[in-house]
């Protein structure tokens, strides 16, 4: 039995497996510049975050209808359930779809079709987190927040993703203030490729309740001390870090040092179809390669529920 866990850092568009990409391409009459799944799989060699994002956005062309988003989310939930995921807080990138002419309503309603029946069908409770693309303008993010107002009963929080360097959190101060006024929870990617100062800014300027990745905090001992003191959750993604070359090899991953320092770490999959593994695979990898013992793995699983946006009673049921 895999350890029950919550997944807190998962981009639904990053769960698009090659087989489903081709199936949706055929269904929607979209031509992909790859002959078959084998040829596509060869494109999964990344140099850095940007080289991954290029493929990630390119393949999204196959996602067009409400049903496509429902199928995508259902496929993820089935795989996650098999790996012990009991609760998933799922990111989506509305701007990546609306800029291609796909209605926000089709995205949210499609995802909701799968999420609304997830407890019954997969035994997984869910939350939806809408991410702003940080390499798009703050105005576009604000327009996206306004456009999402009719769907806020389905959206728990906002996040910030895409190309990090050169797009510091402060760029989105007003958007996050507006999101807070709407009662939305706040998270942001920070310290994946960007410097430790972006983590501090996400905390102080955006008021985030979790830091996505946060890996580069390790370069700033005073920041580590603060994150420990505030019990600030970090949603780490070890296999992602290897594939995007944020760390040289999995054996070099600082997760054990981070846990020893008292940081509130969680382990997640980020974009599992692209990075070679779902949540349970990430747990297995850190166990076998980093030698984390049963107690450490249980701590990671416990942290994932504590750092989730579940209410206390729901959290107990999920665990
Ligand atoms: N980092 C930033 N943006 C992203 C990622 C990531 O790992 N995955 C999807 N969008
Ligand atoms: Zn991410």
Describe the model:
With 319 residues, the chain is α/β, with parallel strands linked by helices. The protein has one domain (5-308): Metal-dependent hydrolases (TIM Barrel, Alpha-Beta Barrel). The protein contains 17 helices and eight strands. The protein has helices at 18-28, 37-41, 49-59, 66-82, 94-98, 104-115, 118-122, 138-147, 173-181, 196-204, 221-229, 238-243, 255-260, 272-275, 279-290, 294-306, 312-318, and strands at residues 5-11, 85-92, 125-133, 157-161, 185-190, 210-213, 233-236, 264-267. The chain has an eight-stranded parallel sheet. Helix 8 (138-147) packs parallel to helix 9 (173-181). The longest helix is centred in the N-terminal third of the chain and has 17 residues, at 66-82. The site of zinc ion has 6 residues, from strand 1.
